[in-house]
Design brief:
The chain has 416 residues and is α+β, with helices and mostly antiparallel strands. Helix content is 38%, strand content 22%.
């Protein structure tokens, strides 16, 4: 019994020693792995720190650390880049002139009022070194069509400078004349009158008449009425005729580089024809269209000699390709990057003369809010004073443009 117990005890002892040896071997293996792990990653850490230290030590001449984002941004600003943008603009109407021999000579009568439209214009602007290098129109989309203006010019054998007074009768010349609640283009429209209707003038406010017709009252535009009764004889209508004109000394006394251009020159039609008949006008462009520089003065309160001088400068006295092929004396709409293709096309020279006059009046020579033609208000978007220098600020990229135009103005005035 005792021998049996000793045998069991020895067996337990052998098992215990075997287990201990296995545990020790396992522990040694673990220790080996730990030591290897620490050695391997410790070396990698050193390399990583050395690499980081090496990167951080890169410096430029001003001792600042390199910033990759700043370098990329700086480099991108040095080259050319393009920007596309779309904005809504007014779509200017055109004016058609036609002669009417039943009206007194030089009488201006609006048969159809012009209405501006709206258009979405997409432009491409190119920058170089942060500055605008060029700008051009790449697409236009008309969102509201314009209604063109129709004007009749009297070509009768008599002339009248009669000014309408309160109490006078006037007659509607437009085929559909709007009667407004207030003397404002954007006021409430109350009635529509037909051509030849008789009105009584109750009050004169700027470019508007306050009139009565039957039992109704309202405001109408002066330009769409006439004091001339077309049913009356021409002899009766000519009783207030006048052919007076200012002398050269009177007209040239206002000539100077800083003169206000939002006032008419005061030249008569005959005087415009005289100064624009010139040997430099090889194609007779200005001579045959001299009357329209006179008519824009009467309608838009702008110096017609100035407008003619701009046309002479921009078209080389009507010899440029744009003026000859597109009837565009002013290079209107042209961009420096593609002047011919971007310039507007017109059906005749009178359209371009009339349009450029309205553009100057609306955007350049009158401050915002000024009452201008057809009961409208000036935008004043590019207004920097009503002088040549003021216009040159935004109108032309050539800084010497104003001086060149003034030389043409002097030349024309001195021909009186």
């Amino acid at each position: 019994m005792k021998a049996k117990d000793n045998k069991k005890k020895n067996k337990r002892l052998k098992v215990t020693v075997k287990n201990i040896i296995g545990i020790v071997a396992f522990i040694i293996s673990i220790l080996y792995i730990v030591i290897f792990y620490n050695f391997y990653f410790a070396n990698n850490d050193v390399y990583a720190k050395e690499a980081t230290s090496s990167i951080e030590s890169i410096e430029i001449s001003n001792a600042k650390n390199v910033n990759l984002n700043e370098i990329i941004e700086e480099n991108s600003n040095q080259g050319k880049k393009e920007e596309f943008y779309t904005e809504e603009e007014d779509l200017e109407y055109l004016t058609t002139y036609r002669n009417n021999p039943s009206l007194p000579k030089e009488t201006i009568q609006v048969i159809q009022e012009g209405r501006e439209g709206k258009q979405e214009v997409t432009k491409k602007r190119t920058y170089e070194n942060g500055k605008i290098l060029s700008e051009e129109i790449v697409n236009t989309k008309i969102t509201k069509g314009a209604i063109n203006k129709i004007v009749e010019i009297g070509t009768g054998n008599y002339k009248s400078n009669y000014n309408v007074k309160v109490g006078d009768k006037v007659y509607v010349t437009s085929d559909r004349l709007s009667v407004m609640l207030e003397p404002d283009e954007n006021s409430q429209k109350m009635y529509t009158l037909s051509q030849n209707e008789e009105l009584k003038v109750l009050e004169i406010t700027g470019e508007w008449y306050y009139v009565s017709f039957g039992t109704k009252k309202g405001y109408v535009k002066k330009e769409a009425t006439t004091y001339i009764d077309i049913n009356a004889k021409n002899e009766e209508n000519s009783k207030n005729s006048s052919t007076s004109q200012k002398s050269k000394s009177e007209l040239i006394s206002n000539l100077n580089f800083n003169m206000a251009l939002n006032k008419p020159s005061g030249l008569s039609l005959e005087q415009f024809k005289k100064i624009l008949t010139d040997d430099n006008d090889k194609n007779g462009v200005f001579e045959s269209n001299a009357e329209y520089f006179y008519y824009i003065e009467k309608q838009y309160n702008i110096n017609g000699v100035f407008v003619a001088a701009v046309g002479i400068h921009e078209s080389g006295w009507g010899t440029s390709k744009i003026s000859l092929e597109k009837y565009n004396l002013f290079g209107y709409g042209a961009y420096d990057s593609s002047p011919y293709n971007s310039a507007y096309d017109f059906a005749n020279y009178s359209e371009s003369i009339d349009l450029i006059a309205r553009v100057f009046v609306k955007y350049y020579i009158n401050p915002a809010g000024t009452s201008i033609y057809s009961g409208e208000k000036a935008s004043g978007k590019y207004y920097n004073g009503p002088t040549l220098s003021g216009i040159n600020t935004k109108y032309a990229t050539d800084k010497g443009w104003a001086n060149k135009v003034y030389k043409h103005m002097e030349y024309l005035y001195n021909k009186l």
